[in-house]
Amino acid sequence: MQQPGQDNLIKLESMKEEALLGGGAKRIDAQHKKGKLTARERIDLLLDEGSFEEFDLLMTGRAGLSSGVGEFPGDGVITGHGTIDGREVFVFSQDFTIMGGALGEAHSQKICKVMDHAVRVGAPIIGLNDSGGARIQEGVESLAAYGEIFHRNVQASGVVPQISCVMGPCAGGAVYSPAITDFTFMVEHTSYMFVTGPNVVKTVTHQDITAEDLGGAMVHSKKSGVAHFAFPNDILCLREVRRLINYLPSNNRQQAPILDLRDPIERTDPALDYLVPANPNQTYDMKILITSILDGAEFLEIHPHFARNIIVGFGRLGGQTIGLIANQPAVLAGVLDVQASEKAARFVRFCDAFNIPLVCLEDVPGFMPGPVQEHGGIIRHGAKLLYAFSEATVPRITVIIRKAYGGAYVVMNSKHIGCDVNLAWPAAEIAVLGPKGAAQIIYRKEIDEAANPEEMLARKTEEYRQAYANPFMAAKRGFIDDVISPRETRHRLIRSLQFLENKRTNRPQRKHGNIPL
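Now predict its structure.
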């Protein structure tokens, strides 16, 4: 006769086997046919092999309004913790094979538990979202369950990094959790996000639109900016999540991990001396400079498809993670517009929250003119970037590569809003306006009265350029700390970061500021 303990062991193994099967072989096959991995396969790819420790494997939900609903072990989500390259992270992965991954009370309780653990121990939270939305059978309880998650997203913001991977449907209220988190990944053709789906859109607006066109990965990574990354499949998506984690500290009390790529601090690049064209109206690719100065030429660009006139991302200088913000002259001449300002401001605030130094490479001709931008709130959105830089207390360095005109010069991390070190290349032009625009205003009368106005304008433009559109006037006033040889940029940045390592800033006591949202 078996002991009661033996009976329970057999029962436990049976229950675990059932839980590990999720919705069953048929639904797992259906998931694979859609080009999607299962919830457990995703966790296995994301975490170091054998490191995952699961919570609440046997937890089940309530039956709700329909008999039999909620009797699945795990309740449609897998939660626990593991490591990425040896560093602890907490993770939840919604299982679409169980009731379409719909979120109910028990499902939410499991997610909230790992979020609470993550904040207590100071480790990143990674959510793998693949859900049909709120569990209708549980009524208002499922809405309350979403609220509990959103509240924790807000409380964890700026405390631990939060990463969302949308790897299937994410609709209705469910979209607000990824929206609050720091970085959102999407998978092309298998994931989508929207507040109201195509059927509702058709009912209200009589417009036919597919889920992909309404809220697919490329829509959100190019147009709306909701998604920071879009990848062709689950495997590439999860690989990039691992790469991102390697740049980030585990929480706001730590520094980002140091990684020595054996790239000499003293390394110079003579080609940079010829990067900026002699013609100020000619473009060049700022990414050439970025990859030249960073350790191992490794750069993880954030929002690569959105607001491409500004570049943001993570790299390393002397082994230390830095957040890099750079105007892109090859797109819209590197001008600041509504989308670029928002993109950069959010990135600056993330870096400041997690002790990541900021390096700004500036070549900005100003803010985008025109009624579309003015009516779209360029004043308010540009002020977000100004606010973000001014508020940041981490080490801040700016290198003016070429153009630095008007208010955009001030906004792009200038000395006047608290930047620690401001350097400039010899080609830098720091002025209220570009030389031609300034000449047209200052010498308007002389130009109008000249026998050849175009020739006079060209002459006065060159006079203004020689007198004012250079870095030496700003250097004389102390607004630029040094004018450097382009080839020395990497070395000077690393040395500046080294002496700023123990920077401390005292600010007035307050609950929080009021950023112009």
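The radius of gyration is 27 Å.
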